[in-house]
Amino acid sequence: xxxxxxxxxxxxxxxxxxxxxxxxxxxxxxxxxxxxxxxxxxxxxxxxxxxxxxxxxxxxxxxxxxxxxxxxxxxxxxxxxxxxxxxxxxxxxxxxxxxxxxxxxxxxxxxxxxxxxxxxxxxxxxxxxxxxxxxxxxxx
Amino acid sequence: xxxxxxxxxxxxxxxxxxxxxxxxxxxxxxxxxxxxxxxxxxxxxxxxxxxxxxxxxxxxxxxxxxxxxxxxxxxxxxxxxxxxxxxxxxxxxxxxxxxxxxxxxxxxxxxxxxxxxxxxxxxxxxxxxxxxxxxxxxxxxxxx
Lengths: 140, 144
Hints:
The complex is a heterodimer of chains A (about 140) and B (about 140).
Chain A: E1 15-22, H1 25-35, H2 40-43, H3 45-49, H4 60-75, H5 77-82, E2 83-89, E3 98-111, E4 114-124, E5 130-139
Antiparallel strand pairs in A: 1-3, 2-5, 3-4, 4-5
Chain B: E1 15-18, H1 21-31, H2 36-39, H3 41-45, H4 59-62, H5 65-70, E2 81-89, E3 98-111, E4 114-124, E5 130-140
Antiparallel strand pairs in B: 1-3, 2-5, 3-4, 4-5
């Protein structure tokens, strides 16, 4: 974990340090055990072989959590008491995919002792294709 | 459950969910996260929360189409795929807390020949305060 951002110095255009993740079937299974959401497209290779993806895929909310990890790393408690996200999922994540999670500050507003920061965020796969795009907000 | 059984604004019975240590451990293994706010008791005690809290996206463990439909005795069809996600995080939820969830169908739309259903769930902490909101959009598989 890196040091938190210096909130005074956060500036529009600044990129947050990216995170890289490697997906495995074991991690999918651990997540599904916690969610108890046994959709066969995530956990049943035989079923998944006959789908359009020809393979199991990670549940969306599993890799979306990587964005929360990045935001919590840099904004700490503020993310938990004033965070927001809006995302579109574009492509699946397969076991053995490596994804990169990034964010860039696009707005910073300070009004009435409240600061709000908006970031464009993304998750890309090893082919540099967008998996997830959207934005996050932090208000404190 | 068939798509035709959904309507915008449809509300589901409230349900509760306990964020046990075991569940959080599996979640953290699945997403490989080790933020000390969630994992280090000494660090968390000195935070503004004063104790370990759960990662905020754990709301996605219990605001799922399958758990929401279970409240009315229905099941999701296999092959549901997530297409969108919105979150609002308002208050910390402690490890071990039981939250109450109020869920509604926020939207049912067809785009480019696909059916999209958005289910929105609000999680309330044991003091009855809204702690987090999750709205998940899924592509509903074509009915056979």
